[in-house]
Amino acid sequence: MDLQIKSFEDYQNTYQHSVENPEAFWAGIAENFYWRRKWNNVLDWNFKEPKIKWFEGAKLNITENCLDRHIYQHGDTPAIIWEPNDPNEAHRVLTYKQLLDKVEQFSNVLKNNGVRKGDRICIYLPMVPELVIAVLACARIGAIHSVVFGGFSAQSIADRINDADCRLVITSDGGFRGTKDIELKSIVDDALVQCKSVERVIVLTRTRTPVSMIKGRDVWWEDEIKKVETQGNPPCPAEEMDAEDMLFVLYTSGSTGKPKGVVHTCGGYMVYTGYTFTNAFQYQPGEVYFCTADIGWITGHSYIVYGPLSQGATSLMFEGIPTWPDAGRLWDIVEKHHVNILYTAPTAIRSLMAAGDSYVDGKNLSSITKLGTVGEPINEEAWHWYDQKIGHGKAPIVDTWWQTETGGFLISPIAGVTPTVPGYAMLPLPGVQPILVDENGKEITGNDVSGNLCIKFPWPGMLRTTYGDHERCRQTYFSAYENLYFTGDGCLRDENGYYRITGRVDDVLNVSGHRIGTAEVENAINMHSDVIESAVVGYPHAVKGQGIYAFVIASQHHTDEELTRLDINKTVSRIIGAIAKPDKIQFVSGLPKTRSGKIMRRILRKIAEGDTSNLGDTTTLLDPGVVDEIKEGAEKLRG
Ligand code: WT7
To answer: Ligand 1, closest atom to CA 399?
Structure first.
């Protein structure tokens, strides 16, 4: 069976079959992968507990699907093309054969360092090929990877390491991003002061910045590789995994303070990311596919590593940032490597658009045939710029809606098959059953309606639990509405039945396509000694999509407001990471609260948006007077 849907009619038939007979449908798709043993049962589920089991009884290793099975016919096909931060440094290409060799080699390094199936490994690396190698080596020996994005702070690393009880950390001396050299090992050292479970740290050389190697704990990646070479580079056969064994944990923010470890398992995740990758992008052999995300996020896991590699694709990864040495960097990369498919975030598109057309005019982008976006709703202006300037009006844009928890795309056009409308994710992929509900969980049927977006039937790529706390998984995703997975997003379905995601309906912000919980930012701000209380909301930001607006009650101590602002930003960077720094901090003497003490964020959101004409009902407030003061302060801050 051909995995790819070829026409809209084909899509409609496939979709219908997938809904009427999901088990037969997914079994058929799964036949396209390599299993050591097939499943006894396709699906066992209920959303009450929740219990979600796909392909029970099946045995596999995802790296055999991503590497070994391509070697015979496509061993010399590039698997990874790596473009360094500095355009003057040589790029690297790893063919499938070379990548397999390196993965086996590093798998043996992990084994030599005592790693066994089921162990949790924290990976904190820059965007270098060794990050892909480390991820796949974990998967090969059945260790569970927990990749932490290089922008997170020592405290965030420590929280994640402790939550999953990681035994080993893989990092590098540093990482290059634009003009910056980020001292990753030093940040890890700060984190490990709080982590008793970590016995070993493997350190890759990248920037040659000085590092402190602790005797008995820290070893160099390169030395460990040499040991394996001295052993004669033995192969490392892939560990046999159950379909429902854990593959990885990835932490993501929610409406409460503490990020949760989203758990994905081997079989379903493999099938789902492979199927959605090849379909949405209509990947053709030989095409060069470039996803600009970082592997520290789910987009990188699913659509730089596992999805493309399971399909034998050529996946281009980029170490740097789109604006360095200048805002033409992505276009230079497209030209240099003849990129056919480009997948990036609306925030990147907006910032490159704002830099001016001079950075794109004159670049040869004729190789591009398909485009994608992810992470947040895309505004029409950015969509048209992307379409005209980058796609020259000829490349379909797939606006892929999904989440860390969904593992892969749920609602997305299929390139060249599904019609597209700017700002719309369009239609559910096969196997995905979206429904809109009102506050009471009542289904909103028909077209030209909007509501809260839920999914009523499992798909193979969905999360199975939150690490170490199944009840939290149930609470967060399966308790709002009975027998439904709740996405946290608002959504409209237009008169044609096309879906448009309108944004989060919970207290979660989407800043440059990254999810940040307001409670998490508030907790961090509140750790500053001058802060008594704070409330964080999002506001429209021209480049980031949403900016972070903090209303802060500070104690008498502060004399210099600007300095206190910088101090608070520093605190947030320390506790979470620079990505969570507020864009605006307004000092207030009180917050709008109900008599029961609940902060009325609706009012703060309106003020932050600069729309104070209609603040709605404020009569239930404990002190309605505070609103006028906050309004005045906001106007002053805007200047
Ligand atoms: C949230 C998930 C999935 C990878 C990147 C973010 C928003 C995601 C879209 C889109 C509108 C989108 C949603 C979602 N989102 N893609 N195409 N259109 N909104 O992953 O950090 O798990 O965040 O991002 O609000 O719930 P994430």
So the answer is: 17
What is the torsion angle, in degrees rounded to the nearest 10, for the CA atoms of residue 15, residue 498, residue 486 and residue 431?
A: 10
For the question of whether the overall pTM of this predicted structure is more than 0.85, the answer is yes
273 CB within 6 A, ligand 1 = no
Ligand 1 within 6 A of 294 CB?
no
CA of 400 to the centre of ligand 1 (A): 8
**How many other C-beta atoms lie within 10 A of the C-beta of residue 178?**
14
pLDDT at 384: 98
Spell out the domain ranges in the chain: 62-78+95-239, 281-399, 508-638
Give all strands (DSSP E) within 498-575, no chain letters: 499-504, 508-511, 514-517, 531-541, 545-554
Cis before residue 22, ω within 30 degrees of 0?
no
Mutate to test the pocket of ligand 1, among 149, 347, 373, 402 (most ligand atoms within 8 A of CB): 402
78 lines ligand 1 (CB under 6 A): no
Which fold is adopted by the domain 508-638?
GMP Synthetase; Chain A, domain 3 (3.30.300)
Domain 62-78+95-239 matching CATH 3.40.50.980: the answer reads yes
Q: Is the CB of 376 under 6 A from ligand 1?
A: yes
Residue whose Cα lies nearest atom 6 of ligand 1: it is 375
**pLDDT of 557:** 63
CATH architecture for segment(s) 281-399: 3-Layer(aba) Sandwich (3.40)
Q: Which residues of the chain have pLDDT under 70?
A: 1, 557-558
Provide the residue type at 329 as one letter: R
